[in-house]
């Protein structure tokens, strides 16, 4: 059985970036992928347009906590070692463009990123990389100073070093990690819609540029819950099952952790961040019905008014001081109670994974073994929307394979 410098398990963004980086350094790579093709999520990312990274990560003095929460110190070495996503992809044949801070391939097709990483067809003619598809790895064993990976059909592969880049922890990976003694933190949906009862009648209603945040401070059994509270902004969309849109997706990981730990979580949404207290006070002079005054779609305006026992036709001028205060709060810090976890298959990213204290941030090497590395979503890192998850996967794979 032949042996290579690297065994890379998982052909997603992290594994592919590692394979290309290792090959460019003259290393031989055996890439082992469970499914029939590499990079499925790269093709699905950003609705097919593939938001591959974010320029905010290359700004001086970047606040990693804003994008990765409690994992901010852990992600820093890998992300800061990748000075520019554009410089990473240019030599591979993909030019990146920016929409605001978000980076995309110039033709806005995920396939361009994938073929930059793999060639077309994938790795068939790459002298340094041998790829095996339909090759799920079910066991990983130390073999002297190196490693041996065993596939589901019994095939065995050997290398000096191994990278586990299998994405959000699945059953096979969990068994491998358990056998090696690595702790996995609870797996929860992140970048997912929130399930809230009682708003199905508003399905399809959207509100531009709201602000959303988690209300309660909690001393949780899951350490990540206690991370500093962050405010997220973006459009809000009501769905048949609850809430969605960028601000909600970004908040969803924190909420899921709190629901898992405490059984519930409460969020507040400022539905009208552009409305000032002075503008609101001035409404009381006018004679319009309240439902026409609220800067919201009418169906939502009526629901908000009813939530504070106000009739839609009531005139703003008739509000008592107490009613006015309740309405202001309902508009600018509307509370939603969440008690259900959204199913994992609706999540774009898994929150939770290999515990970060078991991995060396500077190299992404496992602390329990020599020559075993982790990169991408398998680790307990989840970023907000905007290209932060793919950039983390690429940066991690690149860092690991730079040794
Ligand atoms: C619909 C959708 C849209 C998204 N859009 C964006 C976006 O626009 N921007 C962004 O930054 N992020 C986005 N994300 C998140 C991003 O795609 C992931 O965070 C990123 O792809 C993770 O890369 P990875 O290499 O760690 O894992 P993955 O991409 O999940 O790759 C892991 C690979 O390992 C393989 N594998 C698993 N187990 C085994 C095993 N036992 N043996 C062998 N192989 C195995 C899997 O088949 C898979 O190919 C999106 C995610 C989804 C689902």
Description:
The chain is α+β, with helices and mostly antiparallel strands. The protein is 30% helix and 23% strand. The protein has 13 helices and 20 strands. The strands form 5 sheets. Strands 1, 2, 6, 7, 8, 9 and 20 form a 7-stranded mixed sheet that branches. It binds flavin-adenine dinucleotide. Flavin-adenine dinucleotide binds at residues 9-15, 32-35, 40-41, 44-46, 51, 136-137, 165-167, 170, 172-173, 348-349, 376-377, 387-390, 393. The site of flavin-adenine dinucleotide has 34 residues, from helix 1, helix 2, helix 7 and helix 13.
Topology:
Elements lengths: L2 E7 L3 H12 L4 E4 L7 H5 L8 E2 L9 H5 L3 H9 L4 H5 L6 E4 L2 E4 L4 H9 L10 E4 L4 E7 L2 E6 L4 E9 L6 H10 L7 E3 L3 E2 L10 E9 L17 E7 L3 E3 L1 H17 L2 E6 L6 H7 L6 H4 L4 H10 L13 H12 L1 E5 L10 E3 L7 E2 L4 E2 L5 E3 L13 H14 L2
Parallel strand pairs: 1-2, 1-9, 2-6, 9-20
Antiparallel strand pairs: 3-5, 4-5, 7-8, 8-9, 10-17, 11-14, 12-13, 12-15, 13-14, 15-16, 18-19
Helix pairs in contact: 1-13, 4-13
The protein binds flavin-adenine dinucleotide.
The site of flavin-adenine dinucleotide has 34 residues, from helix 1, helix 2, helix 7 and helix 13.
Global morphology:
elongated
> How many separate domains?
2
Regarding quaternary structure, what we see is single chain
Poorly predicted runs are 218-228
Q: Name the bound molecules.
A: flavin-adenine dinucleotide
Report the major sheet: 7 strands, mixed
Number of strands: 20
